[in-house]
Design goal:
The complex is a heterotrimer of chains A (139), B (438) and C (575). By secondary structure, chain A is mostly helical. Chain A is built from four helices and no strands. Chain A starts with a helix and ends in an 18-residue tail after the last helix. Chain B is an alpha+beta fold. In chain B, the strands form three sheets. In chain B, strands 1, 4, 7 and 8 form a four-stranded antiparallel sheet that branches. A three-stranded antiparallel sheet of chain B has the order 6-5-9, with no helix packed on it. In chain B, a hairpin with a 5-residue loop joins strand 5 and strand 6. Chain B is elongated, with a radius of gyration of 30 Å. The termini of chain B are far apart. Chain C has 575 residues and is mainly alpha-helical. Chain C is 63% helix and 2% strand. Chain C has a two-stranded antiparallel ribbon. Classes of the chains: A mainly alpha (139), B alpha+beta (438), C mainly alpha (575). At the A-C interface, helix 1 and helix 4 of A face helix 8 and helix 10 of C.
Chain lengths: 139, 438, 575
C-alpha cells in the first residue's frame, strides 16, 4: 500500500461522518437520512426560487437572489451528493480550483469588453468613442 | 538520503496477478494489475474523475462567459427574450434532474453496501429520469423549432414575446403576409421596408398612407406575378406590437405570458382581425428591427390561419402629413425609429410598471437571437452530457445486473454518479439564468 | 530521507547483467500487439513516431514558406497557397508536435519509470488519448486534400467563418487533439499523485516530473476551453448560431478571448516540460545537484498558474479595453520572474560543474541561450506602446520561434537523445548527433535573428510579398531554415538508423541519478525486474563511469540527516 493510500485513510477517519454511520470499505457511505434531506431541500429550494421570481424586488436583487439560491443548491449537491463533505481535502481543492479558474476567465474577459462593445458592433449609428481621454463609465 | 525498498510495486513482471498478493483481501476480479489493491485503484479513479469534473467546469465556463458578457452589456435582450421560455418546463426538469441525482447518490450507497436490488432500482430510476428530462427538452425544442424561435440566423418568430405578431424574414407566418422581401444571401431586405411613415403623438402606433396590392406568384422561381386585388382596408388602429388601441391597454394586450403561446397568439390575432375586418384582409404598418433596420414593413392580415406561399404583397406609401404641433419631438425627416425602445409615445405618463410591461411587450431589441444562441448552446451542450450520462448508466445497469459491483469494487458507480451530479449542478445554474430572468 | 532499515536494503547499484525477462519491445510481437497495447512505453513510442512524422510534415511546410519568401513577389506559389502553407505549418507544429512532444511522447515513456511505477494510472485512457491524437492529426492534415486551411493556426473569426477552406474538418481535428491532451494531463496528474513509491516525497521528485505536473494542471484546466471554442466555431460555421458573428450580433473578439484563454497556457504547456527535461540534463551532464531544486520546482508551478493571467497580451491591438490592456501588460512582466529563476538556477548548476558535452548537453546549452533571447524579447512585446509597433511583425514571429522552437523543440531533441538509449536500447551516433546539434543551433539563429531585425523595421508577418529592402533578411532566413531543416532531418534519420547500427546501450549511459536509469535497458514490461532503490536525487557522488557511456553506482551515499526532507516527504505524501 502506497504512502498516499495510507495517509488518505487517516484523513478520511478524521472527517468521519458525524452521525457515526457506516464508514467501512473504500469510502464513506452516505446515510439515507442525509440523502433524503439533501434531495428534499433541493426540491424546496427549487420551488422557492421560482416563487421568488414572481415577486419584484428590482432586477438586480432578483438576480442576486436567484443566484444565491442556485449557489446554495450547488453547495448541497457538492457537499452531500458528491460526498465532498466526507471526502479528502484535495478533491475540494481541485473543484474549487476549477471554479476559481472559471471565475478568473469571466472576470478578466468582462474587464475587457466595455469598450469595443459600445462603439461599432451593436449600435452602428452610435458615434465612435473618443480615441483618447477617459472612456464613458456607463456600460 | 537513502534507500527504500520500493514498496508498492514489488515483483513486477514476473507476476501478472501480483495485485492479489498484497493481502488486502479484495476478491474483485476488476482490480487492474498495476494497482496495489482495491483502495489504490478506487482512490486513483476518484482523483481522476474529480480532475475530469474540473475539466467539465472549464468546458462549460466559456458558455457562462458568453452568457454573462452579453447579459452585462445587453440586459434588454435577456429581459425580452426569456419570455419565450416556459418556466413550467424548466422547473419540472430541475425537479426531475434533482430526483435523478438523489437516486444516483443512492445507487452509490447501495453498491457500497452490496444491495444489488437497490442498486439496480436506483440506476434504472436515474436512467428513467434522465430520459424524462430529455423528453421535456424535446417538447421545448420542437416547439421552438416550429415557431422559428431559434439561434442566430434562424431566429425568426412570427410572434413577439408579448404575443404580437412580427414581420419575419421567412415571411410565411400563418394568417399574415408582409411586403418585406428578404435576401438570405446578403442578409438584408431587398424590398418592402418603408420609411415614409410618421408618428403622431396624439395617436398610437405608426401611421402610414399606403396603397397595398396583392399578387399571385407562379412560374419558375416565382418569376411571374399576377395582380390579384387591392387590399384597401387599414386594420383598426392598434399598436403594431400586439397591444390594443390605447397605450395603457397595450400593456394589457401584450400581457407577458411565458413562452409556448406563439401559435395560439397568431390564431387569436387572426380571429381578431377577421372580426374587425369582417373577413376582409386589411393592412397595417408593422415593425421589426431585425427585418427592417429602418422604417416599417406593411403587413396584411387575412384573419385566418393559412400560410400563403404564392402570395406577394406590394405597397406604395407616402409620408403622412406632419403634425404641426409636434414641437421638437420629431425631426423633419422620416422617423428613423429608435431601435430597442418602444416606438410608441404615449399620451399620458406611464407608471414605471407600465413602462416595463410596455417595453417588454414592445418591439424586440436588436439581436435577441443572441439569447437563443446562448440558450441553445448551453442547454444543447448540457443535453449532450445527459445523453452521454444515459449511456454510462445503461452500461452500469448491465454490469449491476451481472452482479459485478461489490463493496470492494464500486468505483464506476461512484464516478458515474459524480459525473451525473455535475450535470445536475450545471442545470441548477442554467435554470435561473435562462428561465427565471425577472 | 533516512530510515533505520535503509542500510539493510542498500543495493549498491545495478551492474549490467542479463535480465531474466524480455524487454517491452520484444515481449510481444506484431502490429496488433502495438496497436492494442496498454503499455505506456509502447504508447509513448507510437506518439513519438507520429510526432516525428508530423515534425517532418510541418518542417516541409516551413521550408516551402521560406522558399516562397526568397524573393519579393511570386517565387514558387501564389498568395492563396502561401496562406495555406503557413497555416498548416503553424497548426501542425503547434497541435501535433510541440504540445504533445514532451508530455505525451517522452513523458509517457519516461515519467512512470522515473516514479518507479509499473504504468500510468489509466492505461486504457492513455491508449484512447493516443487514438484521439491520431484521429485529430488525420483530420488536421486531412484538411489538405480538401483544399488546405488558410486562417492561420489561430483560426480567428470572422475570417474563419467566411473562408471557403475546410475549417470544419480542421477544427474537428483540433477538438479531438484537445481532448487527447486533457486525458494525457489527467493521467499524468493521477500517476504522479498515486504512483509515487513510498519514501518519494514531493521534493524527491525529479524536476521533469514537477514540470509535467505543472503542465498537466494547465492541460486539464485550459484545454477544455479550446474544446468548447472550436466546437462553437464549428457550430457557428454550419448552423450560423451567431456567437462570434458580428452580423448576427455576436462578438468576434470573444473568440480571441476564448482562444487565448487556452492558447496562452498552451504556450506554457509547450515550454514547461522543456524546462523539466533541461533541468534533468543540465544536472546530469554537469555532475552537480541542480541549484535551488525547490525554486525550480515552484517556478514550474507558478508559471503554470501565471499562464492563466496573461492571455490578453495577445490582444493588445484587438480593441481590448485600456484597463484590460494595462492589467494584462503588467501581469505579463511577472512571468519573467519564474522564468528568470530557472535560467539563473541552470547557469548556477553549470558553474564549477564537471561539464560533459554530450549531445543532450549541447542541446541544453543551446536551449539556455535561445530561451534567454526568446524570453527577453517577450518583454518588449509586453510593453503596450512597443507592441503597437511590433504586433504582427516578424519580430513576433522570431520571438515565439525562439521560445517554441529554439527552446521547446531543441529541448525535445535533447531529451530525445538523452532517453533514446533507455527506451530503444541502442546508442545513437555521437558524432552525427553533435554535428546536428551544432547545425540546429546555427541554422536556427540564422533563420530567426534576421527576423527580429526586419520585424523591428516593419515587415509584417504572414505576408506573401514584401518590399525589396527586406530581401536580404529573408534570404538569410531562408538559408538558415534549410540548414535547420537538414540538421533535424539528419537527426531523425540517424536516430532511427541506430535501431540497426547503434551499439547496445547500458542501463545508465549518462550517469543519471533518477530511477529510470536503474531500469533495464530497454525496460521490461512493468519497467523494473526488481524494485528500484531510491538514492538521493541529483547526487552523483557514488556514480562512477566504468567505461565510456557506462556508469554504475559503486558505494552507497553516506547517510546524512535530512530531517527537513523527511518531514516534507511525509507531509506531502498524502495526496
Amino acid at each position: 500500500m502506497s504512502a498516499a493510500a495510507v495517509d488518505s485513510h487517516h484523513a478520511e477517519d478524521a472527517h468521519a461522518d458525524p452521525h457515526g454511520d457506516d464508514h467501512h470499505g473504500l469510502a464513506h457511505v452516505a446515510p439515507v437520512k442525509v440523502l433524503l434531506a439533501t434531495g428534499g431541500s433541493l426540491l424546496v429550494l427549487t420551488i422557492v426560487t421560482v416563487l421568488a421570481t414572481k415577486v419584484d424586488f428590482g432586477a438586480n436583487i432578483n438576480l442576486a437572489l436567484a443566484m444565491a439560491i442556485a449557489v446554495l443548491k450547488a453547495t448541497l449537491v457538492v457537499l452531500f451528493f458528491m460526498h465532498l463533505r466526507y471526502d479528502r481535502l484535495f478533491h475540494s481543492v481541485i473543484f474549487v480550483g476549477a471554479i476559481l479558474a472559471a471565475a478568473l476567465f469571466v472576470g478578466f474577459t468582462l474587464m475587457d469588453t466595455n469598450q469595443y462593445q459600445q462603439t461599432n458592433i451593436w449600435n452602428p449609428d452610435a458615434p465612435p468613442a473618443a480615441p483618447i481621454g477617459p472612456r464613458p463609465t456607463n456600460g | 538520503m537513502t534507500d527504500h525498498p520500493h514498496a508498492p510495486h514489488e515483483p513486477h513482471g514476473d507476476d501478472l496477478g501480483h495485485g492479489a498478493d498484497h493481502g488486502h483481501g479484495h476478491g474483485s476480479p476488476f482490480i487492474a494489475h498495476h494497482y496495489d489493491d482495491a483502495q489504490h485503484q478506487f482512490d486513483s479513479g476518484k482523483l481522476g474523475i474529480w480532475l475530469f469534473l474540473a475539466q467539465e467546469v472549464l468546458f462549460f465556463s466559456a458558455l457562462f462567459v458568453a452568457y454573462i458578457l452579453y447579459r452585462y452589456h445587453h440586459p434588454e435582450i435577456y429581459s425580452y427574450a426569456h419570455q419565450y421560455l416556459d418556466v413550467k418546463y424548466g422547473a419540472i426538469n430541475t425537479a426531475v434532474l434533482i430526483f435523478s441525482s438523489l437516486t444516483a447518490a443512492w445507487a452509490v450507497r447501495c453498491a457500497q453496501l452490496n444491495q444489488k436490488r437497490g442498486l439496480i432500482l436506483c440506476l434504472a430510476t436515474t436512467i428513467v429520469c434522465a430520459c424524462a428530462f430529455l423528453g421535456i427538452k424535446y417538447i421545448e425544442y420542437s416547439h421552438k423549432i416550429h415557431e422559428h424561435i431559434l439561434f442566430g440566423r434562424y431566429f425568426d418568430p412570427c410572434v413577439s414575446a408579448g404575443g404580437g405578431e412580427l414581420l419575419t424574414r421567412n415571411n410565411n407566418c400563418a394568417g399574415t403576409k408582409s411586403t418585406v422581401v428578404w435576401d438570405f444571401g446578403t442578409g438584408t431586405p431587398t424590398a418592402g421596408c418603408f420609411t415614409e411613415i410618421d408618428q403622431d403623438p396624439r395617436r398610437d402606433g405608426v401611421q402610414a398612407d399606403c396603397t397595398v396590392k396583392e399578387y399571385e406568384v407562379s412560374g419558375p422561381e416565382g418569376k411571374t406575378e399576377t395582380f390579384k386585388r387591392d387590399i384597401t382596408g387599414q386594420c383598426p388602429e392598434e399598436s403594431p406590437f400586439g397591444g390594443e388601441a390605447t397605450s395603457s391597454a397595450a400593456a394589457g394586450g401584450g400581457k407577458l405570458e411565458p413562452g409556448g403561446k406563439g401559435g395560439e397568439s397568431v390564431q387569436a390575432k387572426g380571429g381578431e382581425a377577421a372580426a374587425h375586418g369582417g373577413g376582409k384582409p386589411c393592412w397595417r404598418p408593422a415593425f421589426q428591427p431585425a427585418v427592417c433596420k429602418k422604417g416599417v414593413g406593411i403587413l396584411v392580415e387575412y384573419g385566418d390561419n393559412v400560410e400563403r406561399e404564392h402570395t406577394r404583397i406590394k405597397a406604395e406609401c407616402k409620408a403622412a402629413p406632419k403634425p404641426s404641433d409636434a414641437g421638437d419631438l420629431f425631426a423633419d425627416k422620416p422617423q428613423n425609429l429608435e431601435l430597442g425602445k418602444a416606438a410608441i409615445h404615449p399620451r399620458h405618463q406611464l407608471t414605471v410598471h407600465e413602462q416595463h410591461e410596455l417595453e417588454a411587450a414592445g418591439p424586440p431589441p436588436e439581436h435577441i437571437n443572441m439569447f437563443f444562441t446562448i440558450y441553445f448552446a448551453m442547454t444543447g451542450l448540457h443535453g449532450i452530457h445527459v445523453i452521454f450520462g444515459i449511456g454510462v448508466f445503461l452500461w452500469l445497469l448491465i454490469r449491476a445486473i451481472k452482479g459485478q459491483f461489490t463493496p470492494d469494487y464500486f468505483g464506476p458507480v461512484d464516478y458515474a454518479a459524480l459525473y451525473w451530479h455535475i450535470v445536475d449542478l450545471i442545470w441548477i445554474f442554467l435554470f435561473p439564468l435562462l428561465y427565471l430572468i425577472h | 530521507m533516512s530510515t533505520p532499515q535503509a542500510h539493510a536494503h542498500i543495493d549498491p547499484g545495478y551492474p549490467d547483467g542479463p535480465v531474466n525477462e524480455p524487454d517491452f519491445l520484444s515481449v510481444e510481437k506484431g502490429l496488433k500487439s502495438w496497436l492494442l497495447t496498454l503499455d505506456h512505453k509502447r504508447i509513448g513510442m507510437m506518439y513519438l513516431f507520429g510526432i516525428l512524422v508530423a515534425l517532418i510534415v510541418g518542417g516541409a511546410f516551413a521550408l516551402l514558406v521560406r522558399t516562397e519568401l526568397w524573393a519579393p513577389g511570386k517565387t514558387i506559389v501564389g498568395q492563396d497557397t502561401y496562406n495555406q502553407f503557413f497555416t498548416l505549418h503553424g497548426a501542425v507544429m503547434v497541435f501535433l508536435v510541440i504540445i504533445p512532444g514532451i508530455p505525451a511522447a517522452l513523458g509517457n515513456i519516461i515519467l512512470p519509470i522515473q516514479l518507479g511505477a509499473p504504468d500510468v494510472a489509466f492505461p486504457r485512457l492513455n491508449l484512447s488519448s493516443f487514438y484521439l491524437w491520431m484521429a485529430g492529426a488525420l483530420l488536421l492534415v486531412g484538411a489538405i486534400p480538401f483544399g488546405g486551411l488558410d486562417t492561420g493556426w489561430t483560426l480567428y473569426t470572422p475570417y474563419s467563418l467566411e473562408t471557403k477552406t475546410p475549417v470544419l474538418i480542421a477544427v474537428s481535428g483540433v477538438f479531438l487533439l484537445g481532448f487527447s491532451s486533457i486525458f494525457t494531463g489527467l493521467n499524468m496528474l493521477v500517476t504522479i499523485h498515486k504512483f509515487r513509491p513510498q519514501g518519494m516525497g514531493w521534493f524527491q521528485l525529479p524536476l521533469n516530473v514537477w514540470a509535467i505536473y505543472a503542465t498537466a494542471i494547465m492541460q486539464v484546466l485550459a484545454t477544455p476551453v479550446l474544446g468548447i471554442t472550436v466546437l462553437l466555431l464549428a457550430v457557428e460555421r454550419f448552423a450560423h448560431i451567431g456567437i462570434f458573428d458580428p452580423t448576427l450580433g455576436g462578438d468576434p473578439v470573444l473568440f480571441q478571448h476564448f482562444f487565448w484563454f487556452y492558447s496562452h497556457p498552451a504556450v506554457y504547456i509547450m515550454i514547461i516540460p522543456a524546462m523539466g527535461v533541461i533541468s534533468e540534463m543540465i544536472s546530469t551532464f554537469s555532475r552537480k545537484p541542480i541549484f535551488g531544486y525547490r525554486f525550480v520546482a515552484y517556478s514550474s508551478v507558478s508559471l503554470a498558474l501565471l499562464s492563466f493571467l496573461v492571455w490578453g497580451h495577445h490582444m493588445f491591438v484587438s480593441g481590448q479595453s485600456r484597463l484590460a490592456n494595462m492589467v494584462f501588460s503588467a501581469l505579463t512582466f511577472t512571468v519573467g520572474i519564474p522564468s528568470a529563476i530557472k535560467v539563473f538556477n541552470w547557469v548556477s548548476t553549470l558553474y564549477k560543474g564537471d561539464i560533459r558535452l554530450k549531445v543532450p548537453m549541447l542541446y541544453s546549452l543551446s536551449f539556455l541561450l535561445l530561451f534567454t533571447i526568446g524570453g527577453l524579447t517577450g518583454l518588449f512585446l509586453g510593453i503596450l506602446a512597443v507592441d503597437v509597433h511590433l504586433h504582427d511583425t516578424y519580430f513576433v514571429v522570431a520571438h515565439f520561434h525562439y521560445v517554441m522552437m529554439g527552446s521547446t523543440l531543441v529541448a525535445f531533441l535533447g531529451a530525445l537523445h538523452y532517453w533514446w538509449p533507455k527506451f530503444t536500447g541502442r546508442m545513437f551516433s555521437e558524432s552525427v548527433g553533435r554535428a546536428c546539434a551544432i547545425g540546429v543551433f546555427f541554422g536556427f539563429n540564422l533563420t530567426f535573428l534576421p527576423q527580429f531585425v526586419m520585424g523591428a523595421r516593419g515587415m509584417p508577418r504572414r505576408y506573401w510579398d514584401y518590399d525589396p529592402q527586406y530581401q536580404i533578411y529573408h534570404q538569410l532566413s531562408t538559408i538558415g531554415a534549410f540548414v535547420l531543416g537538414v540538421s533535424i532531418f539528419v537527426t531523425v534519420v540517424s536516430l532511427i538508423a541506430s535501431f540497426w547500427t547503434g551499439k547496445k546501450a547500458p542501463r545508465n549511459p549518462w550517469g543519471g541519478s533518477s530511477l529510470e536509469w536503474q531500469a533495464p535497458t530497454p525496460p521490461t514490461l512493468y519497467n523494473f525486474e526488481k524494485p528500484p532503490v531510491l538514492h538521493e536525487l541529483y547526487n552523483y557522488d557514488d556514480l562512477v563511469e566504468v567505461e565510456e557511456d557506462r556508469w554504475e553506482r559503486r558505494a552507497p551515499t553516506e547517510l546524512e540527516s535530512h530531517e527537513v526532507d523527511e518531514a516534507e516527504g511525509h507531509g506531502h505524501g498524502s495526496h
